[in-house]
């Protein structure tokens, strides 16, 4: 089991809908656009992709299409969520991940496990996983937080099993503690677009970005410049993206990014319940902001 090198800009791909069903041609266009924008890897079936509302068959079809469009160009990290260790193990053993390079697994929601429970959960999943695992710490959605000591314990316990972590706690000190002590080949990726620049300055390897669905080239350029140490130029792009970032999350994710994609003519802003589309007022603000960014590029 060889761990992929996850560095630079990953794209947390949206799942477009039309009349309640997945709009596969729109997904293909957004995926190809991300690849053409010089992003570094693709992440379908995550929280931005509304994976919790998809059937197993839909997930399989989306992953297969992503693999087909990618055609071996970039690594693919397929998302997986859940809070029942045993059923997740069964899924890992039955779902066809052929063609993907890693599986991103979020910390379990609702159960509120201890750190020991989180450690045991991920170790049990690693035993069953056909691919290396990218840990996904997102306490804002799960109400459980993987502390640095637990992350480092996992990283050191399974060097071939855990390829890295997407860190979306928003706690810079927590993430810096991981960066200071992580094994060499364990990637640390920002889970927040606008924390990417400061985290790269502290040694992070990149980001899994929401905004890169809409502005792949510009966002990937910022990340590349920062990773090359050209922080003055990276900061200019970072600052230009701040107004859009605030709007994208005002009514939740992925409502904001889908509004931006509708403004760009790439897909509708429809979501699956219990999520609802961005309001008309917010849509107009996002439309104006994203079109100005595209025009200025």
Structure description:
- The structure is a single chain.
- With 297 residues, the protein is of the alpha/beta class.
- The chain has one domain: TIM Barrel (Alpha-Beta Barrel), CATH 3.20.20.70.
- 46% of the residues lie in helices and 13% in strands.
- It has 12 helices and 10 strands.
- The strands form 2 sheets. The chain has an 8-stranded parallel beta sheet with strand order 4-1-10-9-8-7-6-5. It has a two-stranded antiparallel sheet with strand order 2-3.
- A hairpin with a 2-residue loop joins strand 2 and strand 3.
- The longest helix is centred in the C-terminal third of the chain and has 18 residues.
- The protein is globular and about 50 Å long.
- It starts with 7 loop residues before the first strand and ends with a helix.
- The model has no long low-confidence stretch (mean pLDDT 95).
Number of helices: 12
> How would you sum up the major sheet?
8 strands, parallel
Number of domains: 1
- SS-derived structural category: alpha/beta
CATH architecture: Alpha-Beta Barrel
pLDDT averaged over residues: 95
Instruction: State the CATH class.
Output: Alpha Beta
Percent of residues in helices: 40-55%
Uncertain stretches: none
Order of helices and strands: EEEHEHEHEHEHHEHEHEHHHH
Q: Please state how the strands of the largest beta sheet are arranged side by side.
A: 4-1-10-9-8-7-6-5
Number of strands: 10
């Amino acid at each position: 089991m060889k761990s992929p090198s996850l560095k630079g800009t990953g794209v947390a791909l949206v799942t477009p809908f039309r009349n309640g069903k997945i709009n596969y041609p729109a997904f293909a266009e957004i995926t190809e656009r991300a690849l053409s924008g010089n992003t570094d890897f693709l992440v379908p079936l995550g929280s931005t992709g509304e994976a919790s509302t998809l059937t197993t068959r839909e997930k399989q079809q989306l992953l297969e299409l992503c693999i087909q469009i990618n055609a071996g160009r970039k690594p693919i990290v397929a998302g997986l969520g859940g809070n029942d260790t045993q059923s997740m193990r069964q899924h890992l053993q039955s779902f066809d991940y052929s063609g993907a390079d890693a599986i991103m697994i979020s910390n379990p929601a609702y159960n509120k496990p201890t750190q020991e429970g989180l450690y045991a959960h991920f170790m049990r999943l690693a035993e069953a996983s056909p691919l290396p695992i990218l840990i996904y710490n997102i306490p804002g959605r799960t109400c459980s937080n993987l502390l640095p000591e637990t992350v480092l314990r996992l990283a050191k316990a399974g060097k071939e099993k855990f390829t890295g972590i997407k860190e979306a706690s928003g706690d810079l000190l927590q993430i810096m503690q991981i960066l200071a002590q992580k094994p060499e080949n364990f990637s640390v990726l920002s889970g927040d677009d606008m924390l990417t620049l400061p985290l790269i300055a502290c040694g992070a390897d990149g980001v899994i970005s929401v905004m890169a669905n809409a502005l792949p080239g510009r966002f990937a350029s910022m990340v590349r410049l920062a990773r090359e140490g050209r922080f003055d130029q990276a900061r200019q792009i970072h600052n230009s993206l701040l107004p859009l970032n605030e709007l994208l999350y005002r009514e939740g994710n992925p409502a904001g990014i889908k509004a931006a994609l509708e403004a760009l003519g790439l897909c509708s802003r429809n979501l699956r319940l219990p999520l609802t589309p961005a309001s008309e007022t917010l849509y107009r603000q996002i439309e104006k902001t994203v079109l100005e960014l595209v025009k200025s590029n």
